[in-house]
Write a structure and sequence with these properties.
five-stranded mixed beta sheet; alpha+beta; Rossmann fold; Alpha-Beta Plaits; six-stranded mixed beta sheet; 33% helix; 352 residues
Amino acid sequence: MCAPLVASGQPLDLYQADVLVLDQSEAERVRGARASLADVMLRLSGHPRVLEHEDVRAAIARAESYMHEFSYSGTDERLERDGEEHPARRLSIRFAPSALEEILRTAGLPLWPANRPVVLVWMVEAEAGERQFVNDTEYWRTLRSQARVRGLPLVSPLLDLEDRLALSADELWRLDQAAIRNAARRYQADAVLVGRYTRSSAGVVRSEWDLFHGLSRHGYDIRAEAVVDVLSDSVDQVANYFAEQYAIIPQEEGPDALIVQVSAVGSFAAYKSLQRYVESLPVVRRAELVSLRDDALTLRLYTEGGVDRLISQFARDDRLREPRVSGTLRLPENRYLPQGSQANPLSYIWSE
């Protein structure tokens, strides 16, 4: 079994990276820190062009100043330098979260939170008229390595008897969605990525990738000279998709500034009553009206103690009630966005 990059629902450590270096010299540490910070900024933002921004380039040039801690460990790997291979050591670096988030905030760049969808990957190849599951160790290593760079949690199937009874290579090639979803159920992933590829007579790898996420389906056609390049590109495409869905622009939001939407505020008197109520709460330092439409309004609340304390305070006296959802329980698509952010506000109904 190929172990998942992370278990479903477990946050990633977006701020840590490993890089191979020749030794423990300062020059190698500087080189390693710059390479590591570039990986971390791409992973943290999710934006494919984040490394082109001048603020990010300036930060990478002084990467050592953002290091929180680092350590070295031995490896059996080798590092090529100037055409020669040398024994390599692994440099592990963790960068200061608040400093990196401030870079993105100042630059107006997106931040993709650590609670990210887990993607199950199925791959099938066609060769000489036969279709078979991809179980090549090198290919899976490439896929997982690029997924770590992008911060995309992956799960690889066991390809055991249960999998093969539930889903054949031909069904996977035909994109039999019923069979694919049935086989994926045991892994409890949030999305399923299916990769199909073959090699043309000219030696070009031609591939089609389909991402099933909720009720939606997204397709990517990728061509390259080598399978490993196809795999890396597929990870980038999926990471770009999820980052576009769930990344936020860090502004005056976070643990002390929370966005709350309140409905059933049908009059000016009700609005003033709500305002007095929230401003009287001990966890609220200040309340601002963001928008008002019909009988619903949006507030920005500056709090002491963050979202959990605010939710607990609301639950105590039932003046603000959470809306009830009838029918089959379905997790909302925005569950990977921070509660209380502009993209995922807290929702309540006002009850005087």
